[in-house]
């Protein structure tokens, strides 16, 4: 018989497993780096282990924590459900911060960064808040909903579908408003570069766009992204601006404009919203054909569905969108060598592996740098020797 002491011991064991695994990943990565002398290979191995090993174990822990306490939480009614939701979120936050703190010394050694543990933790907390706060609020609303309303929704499938659809849609429309806070971005200072980029965006048909810069030099991160469903904001890392030429920055901007012009932001919103009717359909099937199924079975089915939908389907669409955005860069008249140069510099600055394992690439939101560069070169009919020379010059 499963007792309270077993629950406590099991919980401590799971936490110890996560922490021990994190320590092993850090040591393994450091040994690999010192043996090979390649930051790119060591960081790639580190990312694989963190994503596919530690990530899976952490996910299992986050699920097991509330499930192991079901017998104690269920008698509490709505309060028990709320405790389970908050407990899961706290486990995610705690294990994520612990993993980052353990990895910090080895990553600092490999990447030669100046970012402190405190700075890294603050950044992680802001991103976790952006993701988890809406999820927690929605789940708390679900578990605290009065029984009378829940019964009414159970008897009205249309309303039970529309309510979460409206919430998820509104939430995703509002999230870009908090992105500036998450990145701690500031408006790009007045300069010739800002004037040139604003003029470029205007020529590309984007209209007035907000250009923002976030500080990433200490963490040596070179990246860019676009957000906003109505008024568009483009965010650029200052580490990127430090090392790319104006023409290369315009190529990066053109890629982000391609996401806007191809309506990728709205398509991503539809994909996220599409998860709601999918879950409702699974819930209806479960209530109809397996009403007495145990909690762990329902959670398992939902997790499998979540993995297939977001791990494969959504990420496949994302990779297609990345290629469409790359095509838009060339369509705007950006010379292919300039765009390839920008991509190679991004790979070098982030110390990223240019070529990914085939199965790993299928689980990423972006194609590998190698695949993107090969496609751009073929599209522009560039000589392979030219691309090889650029790769050798920029990466080495």
Automatic annotation (TrEMBL):
Family: Belongs to the peptidase M48 family.
Domain Peptidase M48 positions: 196-378
GO molecular function terms noted in the UniProt entry: metal ion binding; metalloendopeptidase activity
Source organism (scientific name): Alicyclobacillus macrosporangiidus
Cofactor note: Binds 1 zinc ion per subunit.
Keyword check for Hydrolase: yes
Segments traversing the membrane: 6-26, 52-73, 79-98, 127-146, 158-179, 265-284, 296-317
Name of protein: STE24 endopeptidase
Cofactor: Zn(2+)
GO biological process, any: proteolysis
Residue runs in coiled coils: none
Domain of life: Bacteria
Keyword list, A-Z: Cell membrane, Hydrolase, Membrane, Metal-binding, Metalloprotease, Protease, Transmembrane, Transmembrane helix, Zinc
UniProt cross-references to InterPro entries, sorted A to Z: HtpX_protease (IPR050083), Peptidase_M48 (IPR001915)
Pfam families: Peptidase_M48
